[in-house]
Each structure stands twice: as structure tokens, then as C-alpha cells.
């Protein structure tokens, strides 16, 4: 006779296994859905940044008011007028189109005596010192148009080297130290940067318009990965169940 008491359990998944499968499936699907939501958020953010960059520039005072009220000033186009203090420029280590060099951050003195640090653009490594690009050391009043960039609250990562103030090499944009290292009163310094646009400088240096929007958007790939794992789990469970169903019971 057939022992039906042992055949029945083999014909269905154990209860605990079924519960674990359902929990795992719920987690995988929720992770995939979260990545889809992140995808829509990131696409909206990138579209917003593109719109800011394409908009007409606004006066510096407008960006200052926005920053003071806690608004998001990143990548907003702005215009400022002043004179560069060329002997107080700071150098930020960077690469531009595969070439190693520096972004030149120069204080722009406004008519009211306040200071705005402007990222004038890229110079190759061999042109770090101002005497190697004297034609680009503008001395008269300048109208600068560019993108506002927020002040960093601190070092972005432990992997980033410490700034070498003595050699005037900055690896992260510490606005307070940039100002203090050249004797500028921090109270007079506007609490954000401006990246100058690509308007050519005499003799071509610095090269403006170097702002890079580094916001990777891999959320679709991640979503497909989580949904794919959920599908694989369903297939594996289904195959296992059908194999058990097809297996003849012990006599």
C-alpha cells in the first residue's frame, strides 16, 4: 500500500519555506520599486539643473538672497561685477579633458568691498603660476557670468587628500581656508562660489566653463537587477515545486 501520510508533505512547500520565499520576494520587489522612484527623482533633478543652466543670468544679489533663505543655489546662472585680486588666487587640483592641472579660484572684489571667489577655469599643470599666463591676469573691472556653487560644509570624503595650503594646492573647496590663507576677512567673503562661463580669456587661459554635473543615474539598472532577482526567485521556486510534484512517492 502507498503511505499517503508521507506523500502529501512532498507535494507542497513547507510552510516556513513558503513564508521565507514570500518575504524575500517582497523585499526584492520593494527594492526595485524604490529604485524606480529614485530614477524619476534623479531625472527630475537633472532636468531642473539643465533648466537652471539654460536660464538667463540673475544679479548676484538674487542668489545671495536665495542662499540666505536656505534656498538651493546650485548651478543657477548669475552675473557679478568687480575687480580680480590676482595676487590672492587659489589653485584647486583638477583634470580637464584628460589633462592634469588646476582650477584657478580668484577673489573678485565687488564695489562694496566684499569678496566673491570665482572659479575662472582650468590651467595646465605647467601654467599653475600666474607669471606663466600673464595675459590672462585681468586687472580692470570685469563682468563675470557663471554658475553659483554652494559652499561645502566639510571635507567630502576621507579618501580626499588634505589641502596643502603652503603649496597652494587644494583638493577640496574649503572656502574659509581659501580666504584665510590669503589674508581675507571671512566676514567679507560671500558664502558661495561662482564658476565662470566659457567666455575666452586673453591667450586662452584660464579655460572657463569647466563646471561638471557629476550625478550618475544608474537607478534603472539597479531596478532591473532587483526585479530580475525577484523573477529568478519565482522561477527557482516554481521549478523546485514542479520537480517535487513530478517525483513519485516512496512505496
H/I helix tally: 5
Instruction: Please compute the radius of gyration using only Cα atoms.
Output: 29 Å
State which percent range the strand residues make up.
Answer: 15-25%
**What characterizes the major β-sheet?**
5 strands, mixed, barrel
Report the principal-axis shape. elongated
Topology, element by element:
Layout: H1 4-10, H2 15-54, E1 58-59, H3 60-68, E2 77-84, E3 90-96, E4 99-109, E5 115-124, E6 142-150, H4 175-180, E7 189-196, H5 219-246
Parallel strand pairs: 1-2, 5-7
Antiparallel strand pairs: 2-4, 2-6, 3-4, 4-5, 6-7
Describe the structure.
With 251 residues, this protein is an alpha+beta fold. The protein contains five helices and seven strands. The protein has helices at 4-10, 15-54, 60-68, 175-180, 219-246; strands at residues 58-59, 77-84, 90-96, 99-109, 115-124, 142-150, 189-196. A five-stranded mixed β-barrel has the order 2-4-5-7-6. Helix 3 links the parallel strand 1 (58-59) and strand 2. The longest helix has 40 residues, at 15-54. The mean pLDDT is 92.
Describe the structure concisely.
The chain has 251 residues and is of the alpha+beta class. It is 36% helix and 22% strand.
